[in-house]
Amino acid sequence: MTNAAPVVLAGPSGTGKTTLARGLVASSPRYCFAVSATTRPPRPGEVDGVDYHFVERARFLEMVDRGEFAEWAEVHGELYGTPRVEIETAAREGRRVVLDIDVQGARQIRKAYPDATLIFVLPPSVPEMLRRLRGRGTEDHGRVARRLRSALAELRAAEWFDYVVVNDDLQRCLDEVRRIVEEGVAPTRSVTPEELEHFRAEVARVLETEYQEV
Ligand code: ADP
Ligand code: 5GP
């Protein structure tokens, strides 16, 4: 694989981006995962330097000032960024770096690396997205609400991504992502703007009915 451009997986929280990114990286040594820096606290089981570089806000802002990030953004009230060195090391090693980032970061990567492959990940339905988000057991009611509010904006960004995939069955979706990255094959199941709008409306309805007090 000579193409060293980053692969970006973005989409609403709870769709399975991290699971897909990890699956892609585990499938072949040709891929590696870009470990982001974040100010959010670790979840149980997350390891510093493996899942994220967990840093204090002051340290993060210092890294911003020094131009150490290829992209960074505030997401759900915390700061997240991809250290430049993660992308540079991957390029030096001839590996394709996989970024699990939000849509603001994806936009910055598109500018800095025009050859990047941008893949938007959708869950099969809003109830399934909620099941995954709640089932992960890492966010309380308020944090789930915040992630759903972000999802409304994230879903609008799907239209400028190179590809949109639906993470229904994990193995099927992973195969699809690999075909996109390795062969540039478009997913068999394309998502229409109407379906995306319907999805947004459904998220908005859940926010109004189940999270209005948050
Ligand atoms: P994201 O990174 O998009 O927030 P995660 O990768 O953390 O999402 O996945 C959220 C939850 O959904 C996790 O518990 C994960 O194990 C589960 N999950 C991911 N993909 C699937 C899938 N295709 N089918 C069922 N559960 C999934
Ligand atoms: P989580 O807290 O669930 O791990 O991630 C929250 C959101 O931040 C997800 O949309 C995830 O993709 C995004 N994210 C993780 N790392 C980065 C990063 O380095 N840059 C940007 N812009 N977003 C990130």
Bound molecules: adenosine-5'-diphosphate, guanosine-5'-monophosphate
- In total, how many beta strands? 9
Oligomer: single chain
Which spans of ≥5 residues are poorly predicted at pLDDT below 50?
A: none
Share of helix, binned: 40-55%
Task: Please give a structural write-up.
- By secondary structure, the protein is an alpha/beta fold.
- Helix content is 46%, strand content 19%.
- It has helices at residues 17-27, 57-65, 84-92, 103-112, 126-135, 141-157, 170-183, 193-210, and strands at residues 7-10, 31-33, 36-38, 52-54, 69-75, 78-83, 96-100, 117-122, 163-166.
- A five-stranded parallel β-sheet has the order 2-7-1-8-9, with helices on both faces. Strands 4-3-6-5 form a four-stranded mixed β-sheet.
- Helix 1 (17-27) packs across helix 7 and helix 6 packs antiparallel against helix 8 (193-210).
- The longest helix is centred in the C-terminal third of the chain and has 18 residues, at 193-210.
- It is globular.
- The mean pLDDT is 93.
- It binds adenosine-5'-diphosphate (ADP) and guanosine-5'-monophosphate.
Question: Topology of this protein?
Answer:
Blueprint: E1 7-10, H1 17-27, E2 31-33, E3 36-38, E4 52-54, H2 57-65, E5 69-75, E6 78-83, H3 84-92, E7 96-100, H4 103-112, E8 117-122, H5 126-135, H6 141-157, E9 163-166, H7 170-183, H8 193-210
Parallel strand pairs: 1-7, 1-8, 2-7, 3-4, 8-9
Antiparallel strand pairs: 3-6, 5-6
Helix pairs in contact: 1-7, 6-8
The structure holds adenosine-5'-diphosphate and guanosine-5'-monophosphate (5GP).
